[in-house]
Amino acid sequence: MKWTGARYTDKPTVEVRTWIDAPPERVWALVADIGLMPSMSRELQSVEWLDGATGPVVGARFLGRSKHEAFGEWATTSHVIECEPGRVLAWAVEDPADPTAIWRFRVHAGDGGTELSEWMQMGPGRSGLSPAIDRMPEKEQQIVFVRMREIEQNITLTLDRIKQLAES
To answer: How far apart are CA 157 and CA 55, in angstroms?
Structure first.
């Protein structure tokens, strides 16, 4: 089968949105509390602020430890690259100039509730997928496709859990 999907160097993205019957301040409080994220993820095991940071501000760093049956266990350092309290939180994984990924939450008030989106861009920096792509370059598009679908499922789970917490 010939895959015609994205290659890693294309910096593929995925975005999932949900509407939450709660005020944006409540949703933001959950998004900004990175300590909650491991309880909402199949992969993320723990998160801790670094360098004395206690919350998201541009330039703050945090360490995340993750686990995946195919990739094993790993740790990454993320750098907050965008933070507009109540609206946007984004971070670059590893090197902000050449990240392995960029993640972004957006909070929008509307219709008496909140629209929450989570977006992720893969690459361009080398990541845990890079060794598999190096070994099987002919399967790169398939590898990227499968990983992006996993990430989409994980984002959907995270947003569902934030929605449950915000609405309870």
So the answer is: 23
**The predicted structure's pLDDT at residue 70:** 81
What's the Cα-to-Cα distance from 146 to each of 7, 129, 138, 151, rounded to whole Å?
12, 11, 14, 9
Could you tell me how far CA 118 lies from the centroid of its own chain? Answer: 7
Give yes or no for a contact between 5 and 14, defined as CB atoms under 8 angstroms apart: no
| Domains held by the chain: number | 1
The single-letter DSSP state of residue 129 is: T
Domain holding 66, by residue range, is 8-167
Tens-place pLDDT, residues 56-67: 999 999 999 999
Structure-block tokens of residue 94: 């590893």
Contact 3, 141 (CB under 8 A): yes
